[in-house]
Amino acid sequence: MLNSIDPRGSKDLNKKAIKEENELLIEEIAALQKVLFAEEKHSILIILQGVDASGKDGTVRTIFSGINPLGCQVHSFKKPTDEEFAHDFLWRVHKIVPKNGMIHIFNRSHYEDILVPTVKGYYTKDKIDRRYDHINNFERLLTDGGVKILKFYLHITKEEQLERLTERIDNPEKHWKHNDGDWDSRKKWDDYMKVYETIFEKCNEVPWHIVPADRNWLKVNHVAKVLLKTLKELKLEWPELETEKFKK
Prior knowledge:
Blueprint: H1 15-39, E1 43-49, H2 56-63, E2 72-76, H3 82-85, H4 91-94, E3 103-107, H5 112-120, H6 125-144, E4 147-155, H7 158-170, H8 180-186, H9 189-202, E5 208-212, H10 216-233
Parallel strand pairs: 1-3, 1-4, 2-3, 4-5
């Protein structure tokens, strides 16, 4: 799947026009999010996956710049804590899914509990295969409960990743982003790509959106359009006045 999608997108795109469109998309998303929060009938879970430096943080920062913070939460998944490790692998995920009215964004997600153990060989193939089933059942449960799940894979080239990781070393303003472990993971690029392909094949009841992410303005455009389309399809409405006293 990934080999068939150009991480840079179409060559004939107008950067200025798309960036102007992005501003309008972000404004519409912010406006509809206010209604989503007030109505409290729906919730949205956004899953962002991608290799290190694929632009997950930037996606959140740009698209949700106008969002009411009360109605949006971002969760980042790292190595499980001792307490999390003592539970089933979805325990730490399930307790932070969005309630009605909320948008939650997972910067990395439960898919890390397949990616890392597979590449590093922590568990048997049988145990990993069961995790695919557990994730499908988990996402089915959330969907049945009214959570709208949007899954995005931010697709960049290995060359683009090298440029971004190098910038984290050369640019003092980005030193805080540097992590030696990112370079170790980069050495296993092909292994991670194989696991991602399997994830796209086995966990696709909720469809994956493969986002060309070498160019940030195009990445934002793709994600914002999907989110806005989803918000519009919910047919959100401002709640009516509950009390009879002041109804006209």
